[in-house]
Design brief:
Number of helices: 3
Shape: globular
Radius of gyration: 15 Å
Distance between the termini: 26 Å
Helix content: 25-40%
Structural class: alpha+beta
Length: 152
Amino acid sequence: MTDRLSHVYVIYIESTPETVWDALTDADLTAAYWGHSNVSDWEPGSRWEHLRTDGSRIADVVGTVVAAERPTRLVTTWSAPGGEERRRPSRVTFAIRPHGDVVRLTVTHEDLADEAELAQASHGWPAVLSNLKSLIETGSPLPLDPWLIPPD
């Protein structure tokens, strides 16, 4: 397949760009709504890891920080650990735009390898970002991890 697939998801959050940025990059905050800690120094060229919070510290996703422009834009590559050498990683761009007291967060996950990765992104991003929105707006994530709800 020569055409790479992509998924775009937009969500509106009552927040500031700085708070949304922190929710994406702070390991403790990501652990609270994602079930993983996103760990990096968030400098362009640095490695980042998506570490399980079950005590195992297993990285399910790894990548490189491509761009980090706090608080408006974060771009990272995504790959399975060790997969960076086997195939081109996918790329995720978080665009954070303020509109008064509301932030529009646009997540673009591109260069997906196949329909299976597209299906995972199409199910995963709405679940994760709904939990992020709940945490920011109410102080608590949703009472059930939304990614555990089977897709229709």
